[in-house]
Amino acid sequence: MDAVTLAATLAMLGSAAAHSGMTLLTKQAEDKLVFRGLTLAFVGLAFLPWLVTQPLPPWEVWRFLLAGTAVIWAYNMLMIAAFSHGDMNLAYPVMRGSAPALAALAAFVFLQETISPGQLAGLAIACAALIGFAWPERDGKPKVKVLLLALAAATMTAAYTVIDASGVRESGRILVYLGWFFVLSIVTILPTAILRRGRAFWPAARREARPALYSTVFNASTYGLALYAYASAPVAPMAALRELSIVFGAVLAALVLKEPFGLRRTVLAICLATGLVLLQMM
Fold this sequence. Notes:
By secondary structure, the protein is mainly α. The chain has one domain (3-281). Helices cover 83% and strands 0% of the residues. The protein contains 13 helices and no strands. Helix 1 (3-28) runs antiparallel to helix 10 and helix 1 packs parallel to helix 12 (245-255). Residues 9-132, 146-279 form the EamA domain. This is Membrane protein. It comes from Maricaulis virginensis. The chain crosses the membrane at residues 33-52, 64-84, 90-111, 118-135, 147-163, 175-194, 214-233, 263-281.
């Protein structure tokens, strides 16, 4: 592994850890839509004073930014719906676990990236392990609505992975791309929350403001580190590596939400790590 790939790998591990923290705060929020709207708005407003001093990106970059903004809006709506109808330990693994295969396929089709047989095997093992996190327990019953929402969110994840990878490579300026991404999110998710909540928005906003402010660090970190990795290394293995957020999320759920990790999830975590090693080594 060369220095550039190692740096991209470490960045994506940091992105995975930050994503699990962001997701935990979202799950804990009483009003998840207002929470997400405020979080993205805070990050966008933090970037805006610096962005106005920078040259505007060309249209070749704006087309990716606009497409990515629409897809991220859809992802957030689906994620909120999945978390509102089911537990984090069911929705999140499916949401994240099925995304790498979709991202790898999209990168192969649209970015002309090649995938070796060994990487395909690693990708298959990793995805199977991640989906196994969501498999019902012996006495459990599948929750079809939650699974469908999570799969739809995974499709959006795969879509914005390829869009953002293409956009940041076209831009060549990671921080500018990241900043405009969050600024554009201000005019999508936050207005959605205001329109849907009506008069209830402001009481909810006062309640969610502090945790949303904390979440801005996780949001900026997870997307910024991911964009750096996508700009420096092939999309498919980087997208799969980011799904280690499932393991980090399970640990956080056990420590914070008191959800049991268990022997099955321990075995699945080992299988996941094996699959990701194959992705990096083959």
